[in-house]
Amino acid sequence: MAQDTTVPKLNFEYWLDKAIEWGQATSLESQKDVYLHLPQLQEFLHQLYETIKHLGSTVAIQQFPLIGQLLGRLCWNPFVIGYDESQKTLMWCLCCLYSSEPQNAVELKANSWIRSLLCHLLCSSEWESNEAEISTFISALGYTSADYYCHLVKNMVISLVTELRENQFNGLKIQESTSASRVNAVSIFCVPLITLPDLTPLLEALLLYHGGSSKEILSSEFLESVNEAFLKKKISLPESAVFSLWLRHLPSLEKATLHLLDQLFSIQLNSLEEVAHVIKDSLLPQAARHPAIFRTVNEIFKNALMETDGTSEVMTIIQVFTQLFLQAHQNEYKQHKFPLKAYFLYHHQPLVRALIRHPFELPTAYWSQHLKHISDMVKALVEDTNISSLTGLFEIWFLVACFGEWLDIAAEQLLKAVVEPDAVLWLLAFYYCPKNENQQRTQTMVEAEAVYNHLMMLFSHSDLSLKDLEGAIHRVTGIEQRCNQRLATHLLTNFLLFSPCGHKFAQECIYHITKTTDTSKEVYNLLIRTAYRFNHSGEKSQRTVKLLYELLQKLTLKV
Question: Model-level pTM?
Answer without folding.
Answer: 0.76
